[in-house]
Specification:
alpha/beta; Undecaprenyl pyrophosphate synthetase; 8 helices; binds farnesyl diphosphate; single chain
């Protein structure tokens, strides 16, 4: 029993993909898929918390997503406003905290305000952290960290991995153990390139709005079957 408990990933990162295709398959506009994607976040977060996952990071908007049609960008940025109003009572009931990683600059004020309010209103919860990667880009995050260290006058020739990690927006979070990407795409798309060095990768053909409790069970079962050696050998 103990062994099984130990095999629950502490931190799961999800690259939610396929919202647009899901909507198109039903003859609906793309934004309909993003709305259904929010419901998938809700059920996945509630179930992950029940399983004992400590951090669930969802890739909500990448630094590259700004190149999407303006209407779609505006819609995605409005999602937190609706979502948090409806979701905060659920999060408080489920003991889940909200967090955000990514660059704040460029994100509309109303979006940030909704996220900040949700973070404040759930800050006392002691269970899982539901972390939104919003306006997030891994390479940009690495560059910002280097620039900050350099501006602080840090001697970079002495820099350790721990010091560097502490400058990233994921400071204080465990590295992801498992990355899930939906919709059959097989890439990481600038999602935590530093932090995923030893993560197990899991890809599923399911489109994100169809992701559910059973799909998370399947992903975790695949994770449990992996042999994590971190570059060493098993004796
Ligand atoms: C990919 O589907 C999904 C996204 C770009 C994420 C949409 C974001 C959410 C559902 C959450 C938003 C939450 C916050 C806090 C802003 P896609 O559009 O790339 O699908 P496709 O590959 O089928 O076109």
């Amino acid at each position: 029993m103990k062994d099984i408990e130990l095999k629950i990933p502490r931190h799961i990162g999800v690259i939610m993909d396929g919202n647009g295709r899901w909507a198109k398959a039903q003859g609906k506009p793309r934004v309909f898929g993003h709305k259904a994607g929010m419901d998938a976040i809700e059920r996945t977060a509630i179930y992950a918390q029940k399983l004992g996952v400590e951090v669930l990071t969802v890739y909500a908007f990448s630094t590259e997503n700004w190149s999407r049609p303006l209407d779609e960008v505006k819609f995605i940025m409005s999602l937190p406003i609706d979502f948090y109003k409806r979701f905060v009572p659920v999060l408080n009931r489920e003991n889940i905290r909200i967090g955000m990683i990514g660059a704040r600059s460029g994100v509309p004020d109303a979006t940030l305000k909704a996220i900040d309010r949700a973070m404040m209103d759930t800050a006392r919860n002691t269970g899982m952290l539901l972390n939104f990667a919003l306006n997030y880009g891994g390479r940009q995050e690495i560059l910002s960290a280097i620039k900050k260290l350099s501006a602080d006058g840090k001697d970079l020739s002495e820099l350790t991995e721990e010091e560097f990690s502490s400058q990233l927006t994921t400071a204080n979070l465990p590295d992801p153990d498992l990355i899930i990407r939906t919709s059959g795409e097989l890439r990481l798309s600038n999602f935590m390139p530093w932090q995923t060095a030893y993560a197990e990768l899991y890809f599923t053909e399911l489109l994100w709005p169809d992701f559910d409790e059973a799909a998370l069970d399947t992903a975790i079962a695949a994770f449990r079957a992996r042999d994590r050696r971190y570059g060493g050998v098993k004796l």
